[in-house]
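Can't attach files on this board, so I'm pasting raw text. These are the components:
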Amino acid sequence: MFGLNTQCVLELEEEYRSIEDYSGPVARWCPGCGDHAILTAIQRFCRDEQLPPEKTVFVSGIGCAARFPHYMNTYGFHGLHGRALPIAEGIRLRRPDLHVFVNMGDGDCCSIGTAHWIHALRMNMNLVVMMHDNAIYGLTKKQASPTTPAGFRTNTTPRGAYLKALNPLTATLGVTNASFVAQATEWIPELLYDIIKAAYAHRGLSFIRILQRCPHFMDEHFKAIMSDPSKTLLLSHENGIQPSEQLKKIYKNQEEHDPANLHRAREIAEEIDPVPVGILYRNPEIPCYEDLRRPQIRSSADRIENMLNGAFDKFGIFPTASPAPSGGNGSSQ
Ligand code: SF4
Ligand code: MG
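---
Top answer:
Structure tokens for the assembled complex are below.
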């Protein structure tokens, strides 16, 4: 027979969620695709934070990265191309009790979804937004995206992309109210994990650009950065990410960067070689749209309870007020 304490321990053990509890079906991305590493980092993070799967939502648009919600054993919404952000904002506004994550590709975010991207940054709702940047449209078979490097041959630009690639970091840091901007690479999992953790802890829209390998169509694209650690600039600060000693031994190119310094963040964002990784900017003082718009919003459960109570009250029988004493005017002054 179990004592009370043993019973409590057993109950706690039953509630603990392992990584399998967050894992959906086997991911069907190509072998070696960087999306696998991002998925693993997120599943680890959900397990470590013990996020309730029934209170967690992953929202995506269209593209290889947008398969993400299918592989999480949480709620998910696989939306329309470029429309992940307005869907996530709608969820956030009506259900502030949910943990909302967004996964978009570079085409999804920086091309058809650009207007939503800019306005979502300005609205600064409490979301973790991950942009998987492989510099190509993978799902539609090697079409040039806004982040495809100039000169790179694609199926839509067989003579090479004509324009210089758009820089999502400088674009983001130029938007009013942008409150959290970071860059990660999926092939440094420790740092990716730490950045996701910091993004989740930030109240406001956390934008993470994740450089992501697409071995199927962009096999060479990140090879130079991956094989030469001097091509990576590790950002560290006590108010940002503090990389481990092992990481610092590998990536000797380092900068102490205070994420509160917007001017320096914009300069760092311009860097292409070496590639900066870490938190570029964070400002926790910028208000979230949901707090300005509906400061008194209650959770759905509260609203449903109130609605039901109101409906039941219609059929309740309540004692009527006693009649006013004779001679009185029946009203209070
Ligand atoms: Fe990944 Fe590229 Fe394959 Fe898409 S096409 S699953 S991005 S490797
Ligand atoms: Mg892409």
